[in-house]
Design a protein that fits this description.
143 residues; alpha/beta; Cytidine Deaminase, domain 2; globular; binds zinc ion
Length: 143
């Protein structure tokens, strides 16, 4: 399993994580997925309606609109990203519970401290088990 993302999109996710700190940020990934390869075309920031440092929730109406908008352009909702303020990028029990319902999506988790992004990892669920997804960053040059 692989996730392809442009370095500029990754920077957008990192900036969102910093901006939301000390709360968790949440956003959506729009693109294509086929044969175990998720290809990110667009990063869409969402609002964490819980305003929490340990949990996130996105407005379901907003998620639905992004989903519909993607479909209209021949794309799909392929993933979700969120940050872990002062924690590592791992799948928490709460994350795993969500993944059971949304396991076909790729989950990007950002581990961070106040001052820095420490790690970014991607996961998905296959047959009820959490699997690692390799991140392939496509350099888009200086922006
Ligand atoms: Zn989490």
């Amino acid at each position: 399993m692989k996730l392809k993302i442009k370095s500029s999109d990754l920077k957008k996710i990192e900036a969102h994580a910093r901006e939301a700190y000390p709360y968790e940020c949440v956003g959506l990934l729009v693109g294509t997925s086929a044969k175990g390869v998720f290809d990110v075309r667009e990063v869409v920031k969402a609002k964490n309606t819980l305003d929490s440092p340990v949990a996130f929730e996105a407005d379901p109406q907003f998620v639905y609109e992004v989903y519909r908008g993607a479909e209209k352009r021949g794309l799909q909702l392929i993933g979700v990203y969120h940050s872990h303020p002062n924690l590592h990028a791992y799948v928490s029990a709460r994350d795993a519970a969500f993944m059971k319902f949304w396991g076909h999506l790729v989950w990007v988790i950002i581990g961070m401290s106040k001052d820095a992004i420490s790690e970014i990892k991607a996961f998905t669920m296959q047959e009820g088990k959490v699997c690692d997804v390799e991140l392939e960053v496509i350099e888009t040059g200086p922006s």
